[in-house]
Amino acid sequence: MTTTPRLGLIVTDIEDRTDNYTHSWQTMKDMVQMAEDVGFYSAWIPDHLIHEPAGVERYGIWESWSVVTALLAVTSKIKVGSHVLCTGWRNPALIAKMADTVDEISAGRLILALGAGWHEPEYRAFGFPFDHRIGRFDEAIQIIHGLLRDGHIDFEGEFYTARDCELRPRGPSNGDIPIMIGTIAGTPLGDDMGLQRKGWRMLDLVAKYADMWNCPTVADPALIPDIKAMVDEACDRNDRDRQSLDRSNGITVNLPGWQGHFGMTSVRKRRARSGVFTGDYAEIAAYIKQYADLGVDELHIQIDPENPQGVEQFGRVIELLRQ
């Protein structure tokens, strides 16, 4: 029997300099509140500071943790997380403290999604070290995981220190805030960036510390088995039950009539390069079910039109998936 993955909405909170447009707070709030109404399980805010792709004028992005916190304060059911929060820009013990505080604000709806980052220009522009990114992440996740799960850690590493550090008070999840780790090596995005390795160091940390693994857009379901096998191998290598680790992937969908709506020109061009599925509501639902059949637990979806009306429109797909 076909199952249905949990569905998450990605809100593209970046500046489009081609059209001189960035989603306002009001638009992001309206989109996520609509996502909650139509049945999305989660909402996701990309975490970057600036982008400087080759040959493209630098553009900016809203700071994700601020937006995530605000969204959780104006919703009541939907889970929200950063996609994914870069530990290289924030002290890890403070991240754990921030997470417990937002856990309280949201009544337990935060998903703490973490990653090591990859885009060197934003590190340089904002003054963060780009060296030893995986080594720094290794120490950061040890501190964050230890504090969230046990409430206390005494840690001294090469990059970070947290001596006799304790989390007090504790949020309603009482140490069980779900941790998602995102990686790109061995995924289509990693291939596009020329990464030659599978990213075993990061995948080992996924197997040791994460409740969910995420990779960016995988437009072709036929690629999922090889990606799944890569993560299974990391679980086996670290004595982790494969079934205890949730898997999430991203897709991009053009809804019926999308061409008639305003859309950020440069965003649409980037999405087209990574692969976009276009179809009617039934075809989109069938496309999503393919991922569920291949073992994907949660799909994070970018939609076009990307506005509150588009989110409401996507509700028809969710209705079909529930049948």
Structure overview:
This protein is an alpha/beta fold and 323 residues long. The chain has a single domain (6-322), classed as Luciferase-like domain (TIM Barrel), CATH 3.20.20. The chain is built from eleven helices and 16 strands. The strands form four sheets. Strands 1, 4, 7, 8, 9, 12, 13, 14, 15 and 16 form a ten-stranded parallel sheet that branches. Strands 2-3 form a two-stranded antiparallel sheet. Strands 5-6 form a two-stranded antiparallel sheet.
Order of helices and strands: EEEHEEEHEEHEHHEEEHHEHEHEHEH
Helical coverage, percent range: 40-55%
Output the radius of gyration. 19 Å
The largest pleated sheet is described as:
10 strands, parallel
Distance between the termini: 12 Å
Low-confidence segments, given as residue ranges, are none
Number of strands: 16
Give the structural class. Answer: alpha/beta
Mean pLDDT: 94
Can you tell me the number of structural domains? 1
Which CATH first-tier class would you pick? Alpha Beta
Report the CATH topology name: TIM Barrel
Given the C-alpha coordinates, what overall shape results? globular
Q: β content, as a range?
A: 15-25%
Any idea what the CATH architecture is?
Alpha-Beta Barrel
Question: Going by CATH, what is the homologous superfamily?
Answer: Luciferase-like domain
Number of helices: 11
Short description:
The radius of gyration is 19 Å and the shape is globular.
Give short descriptive properties of this protein:
323 residues, alpha/beta, 10-stranded parallel sheet, two-stranded antiparallel sheet, 11 helices
